Amino acid sequence: FKGGDTCEYLLSSGRFLGEKVWQPHSCMMHKYKNSEAKNCLIDKHVVFIGDSRIRQLFYSFIKLINPQVKEEGIKHGNIPFEDKSASIKVDFLWYPEVNGSMRQRIKSWTEGSVAKPHIIVVGAATWSIKIHNGSSEALAQYKINITSIAPLLEKLAISSDVYWVLQDPVYEDMLSESRKMITNEKIDAYNEAAVHILNSSSRNSKAKVKVFSVSKLIAQETIMKSADGLHLPESSRDTNAMILMNVYCNKIMKPIDGSCCQPQPPLTLIQKIAFCFFTLSIIGYLIISLIHRNNYRKNKSCTDLESGEEKKPAISTPNVSTLEMLLQCFCKLGLIMTYFYLCDRANLFMKENKFYTHSSFFIPIVYILVLGVFYTENTKETKLLNREQTDEWKGWMQLVILIYHISGASTFLPVYMHIRVLVAAYLFQTGYGHFSYFWIKGDFGVYRVCQVLFRLNFLVVVLCIVMDRPYQFYYFVPLVTVWFMIIYATLAIWPQIVQKKANGNCLWHFGLLLKLICLLTCIYFLSYSQGAFEKIFSFWPLSKCFELNGNVYEWWFRWKLDRYVVFHGMLFAFIYLALQKRQMISEGKGDPLFSNRVSNVLLFISIVSFLTYSIWASSCKNKTECNELHPSVSVVQILAFILIRNIPGYVRSVYSSFFAWFGKISLELFICQYHIWLAADTKGILVLIPGYPMFNVLVSTFIFVCVAHEISQITNDLAQIVVPKDNSTLLKRLLCIAGFFSGLHFFSAMQDQSRH
């Protein structure tokens, strides 16, 4: 940790990920779109002063504002550019040498009431080397000229952003005869002179002229691809322009995936209150622990000095009280949330951009699959989709999704489409699991609903407070929460049809199917009526939960993407339980699910269907078109997997305890990755150990998994306290929770008012 100024790192150091992706040291670089660049530079005046290399940078910069610009200006003259829609002016001023003319132009901005440019980018040296044939006298004159210009640049730097661009190396073998005197040795000498003079003249660190030295590093890697050995290839100068845009615009636009040059966000009122609460919990727990420890010492067995016999204490060690358990949970949670905040809100740890390669995704996938096979055990029961098997299913899916996120594989469409099926499979299990519970148990009590809602939402609510993020930001939890409530409402609304009632009269099965058809109709209507959907979720207080960036479009998109799969899960559970009740399937240990002939046919169809879907997903060319088909066809691969996994009896009778362990904490893993494994709200990668990528991933992964496991235990412990079985006590707790959210809403409103 060397301080919070990531701008210095952005301007001076970094490395290439692959051939074209530049990774600054310690921070993430945002890729600015034209609209973002315009919003940042609105009413701004930018000036580039220098030679043909600075002209290249000028063109790359203005192409970020308007990609249609062509490089057809006067080569050895001034070139103006203006975007009238955003009142942006960008000028290139032809001053190929650091001399009196350049000094006079810079001086004109420091005198009188002349409007100063907001950004000034200066650099030149190769012309001086070329014209004077690389003489030492020219270098001495260069030093004198920069010394005279430096105070003027310092003066401008008080109110403007001033950058001195160091000279890039050349590819000497490709230089023409007229440029042979421009050697890397000479360029290094000129750069050293410029850096020494500019740094020594800086008296005020806030007004320091920023040295743009990162272009040298970029050029060292790419100058071999130069057309003439002097000028950088287009991709390299575009990278330089993007760096320049990040240096200036990140502090204005505050992009999530642009951590370079961004100041640490100030603590909000709610975050301060949360900090005080966790601090008091830690203090309270320590006090109670000390009291109990002293009591235990007093009552501890001691030896009678007269008889030499051991006296037993009259009072046994007291059991852990509810208050102590509550404080213990909040104490641990407070320490964990501190780690979350330090990782993804404080500028303490480094962050890096993701970079996808096939090996970075598929090698870890193969590795964890091999690990999973080594931990194969027999299941306690051999029913279709038994508990061990569903935990295993959640586990390997979650691990694949984690690798998908950290490797940045969303840029590779075939992988993206298969991951979409895994997310759909989670929701399929939501439909299957909750439907099975309500259908078999017939338990529609408030206790069950509160237990599920608490376990799903506790961590996300805490993160919304600590990390200052909206509820919809953690989109998967709102998704499963809403679908749970839809399943509950569908089955709980009169007439309540459960297995016990349906066994007495088969007509109830048709009644349930009618309910499911009504549900499907509602889903179909809402998926094709964005206006109706947005009206429903724009009503207060739903709007507070489901709005993101001021609208519910993101929520509608997420819901629509897997709109049918929960219904498919409910329907599958209904058909399976009906077949099981009529003993039409065999679930004995080692027995195939159906007769041998039927099992073989279904197994063949399942394998063909599974492979067909994979072939289709791998041939996708357009993400939008494939997303349109996904809700209707994702169930094909899910059902195919279930049948392949369950039809052969010997396959159904075993499971991977390795995957099942991860499956039990899959929700916590999915949520925790946002801040303590990935970084910048999943846009980048957390770097605890810079310079050693593999070791960093190992360490951060170990901490991440331990934290997820601990949070799972804390959630289970708190669920027993916050959601008791006694109805009168539960009602009191619900009133307290309602009061908590009312207070949260009040403080949130105060916070929003102070921001505006």
UniProtKB/TrEMBL annotation:
Q: Where in the cell is it found?
A: Golgi apparatus membrane
Q: Which Pfam families match?
A: Cas1_AcylT, NXPE4_C
The segment(s) forming the Cas1p 10 TM acyl transferase domain are 253-734
The GO cellular component terms are: Golgi membrane
Q: Does the keyword Aminoacyl-tRNA synthetase apply?
A: no
What topology does it adopt in the membrane? Multi-pass membrane protein
Q: What name does the UniProt record give this protein?
A: N-acetylneuraminate (7)9-O-acetyltransferase
What organism does the record attribute this protein to? Machaerirhynchus nigripectus
Q: What is the lineage of its organism?
A: Eukaryota, Metazoa, Chordata, Craniata, Vertebrata
Write the gene name. Answer: Casd1
